[in-house]
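Sequence of Tetratricopeptide repeat protein (Luteimonas salinisoli).
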Amino acid sequence: MYSVRPSSHPATGPIGRGVLLAALLFGSMAAAQDPADSHPGSESAAPLGEVELEISCNAAAQAAFDRGLALLHHMTYPQAREAFAAAVAADPACAMGHWGIAMTLFTPLWPTRPDAAALQQGWREAQRAHALAPDDVRERGFIAAAAAFFRDPDHPDYWARVRRWEAAQADLYDAFPDDVEVATFHALAHLAGAPPTGDEARQRADSAAAILTAMHRAHPAHPGAMHYLVHANDVPGREGQSIEVTRRYDAAAPRNPHALHMPTHIYTRLGDWDRVISGNRRAAEAALEHPAGDRGQYVWDEFAHAIEYLVYGHLQQGDDVAAAREAARLQAVPNLEPGAKSAFHLASIPARLALERGDWAAAAALEPRHPAALDWDRHTWPEAIVRFARGLGAARSDNVSEARVQATRLGELEAATRANGEDLFASHVHVLALALDGWIAQADGDPATARARLAEAAALEASIPKPPVTPGPTLPAHEMLGDMLRLQQSPADALVAYEHALSLYPNRFNSMLGAARAADAAGDQAAARRHYARLLSLSAQGTRQSALAEARRHTVGEGDGGD
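Predicted 3D structure, token representation.
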């Protein structure tokens, strides 16, 4: 038997707002969780926001569940799983505890895909939840949605699972449109099911944001309403929306790594590098307090995620020394959690460091599929980033034969990515392949083909969503088009390309520098001074002395643009 907590809502219809308000502060689950169940340094003493889901379990299980639910909304999956397990331990008949465990086994919006073991475990937990489910329509709806995702665990089609989950969450939302937990999970599922085209992704972001904005107004401390609204705004044209929510989100959970990091997605889109750096510095430190793995044996991959955003922010301020220092921190970490996020960042960061600095020799020397312990056959887009960097480094160093080798491999990786059902990732690989083909054509003395390939890459890149795992393209295609047009002595066209790049990715160091040089070469001194001055204003800590000295000369009317 299991005890049913007295409920303020009927078992067969939508609930009102008279639900439990769980303020997740220190001590809220002290009676429910054994200290041995928490890893040292976890955020049990820090606030996480307020969730509202009264379940049919005993009081101790409810307290543990509340914590797990808040952590789930913060995408803090390892600790959320512990909390849901504590709920089941406190009340073995707690159906929603099993639901929670299942929900931590897939990661909407992240590049990680559940492996066979996770699918089997998720299905077992969903079945247990179904077997224990009380006569509560809302709880049964949540459980049915999780079961929809994990059904047929032997079939690995991730996107079919996401579509089933999205449909089930939509059905639940139709029944309970005013319930904050139902609404936020529906909005998350709607975002997660976004197709790999910019227009449809934007439409989904708009509709999800409308739901989340309404929920945030009614429940201003709810972590899911804040968090998923930031995700909804992480698309071109929405980055300035609800900026007060973005700035409030990290304060809602001041020691949660993902809550500290997530606002920096918006700051990256706005080119606010000081906030990107400060937010991810705090997120990286907090991530080290949140071990991953079934025994806490890994450094959570959120550390790597924060480090890449830190590296990116420092590079855009021209501070290559600080960027390299952060990259070295990641390389020195033992036992980084294996998986798609770690693979992405371990591949992307060295590529960024070489390419942003124009160090073509270093780019050409990058080692693909490193470290070897990762299953790189599952991580085709990260490998493609390294192959692109190697190929671009070779092409810019006039080693066309090696560039062609990497271009061939990019084609294979694009095909493999598409065969895995990852059309968005495949489109990003195709952007890299087009760009590399353009640089190979440039090295081969075919400037018309070179321009056409880079223009095609730029158009495709602008038409597809940016996955949340990355702060931005490895190198923006419009920026590369500007670089190529400058090499081809077309500075006015190059200026247009650079300024288009800046409209998509504001305050990038190399786009500002390229725009300034192109404007100077085109005779537009006012534009040149404007871009040089902007570069200087954002690069007070910069270490690229030659470029910064060039900018200083031009802002006082001296010197020429250099190359």
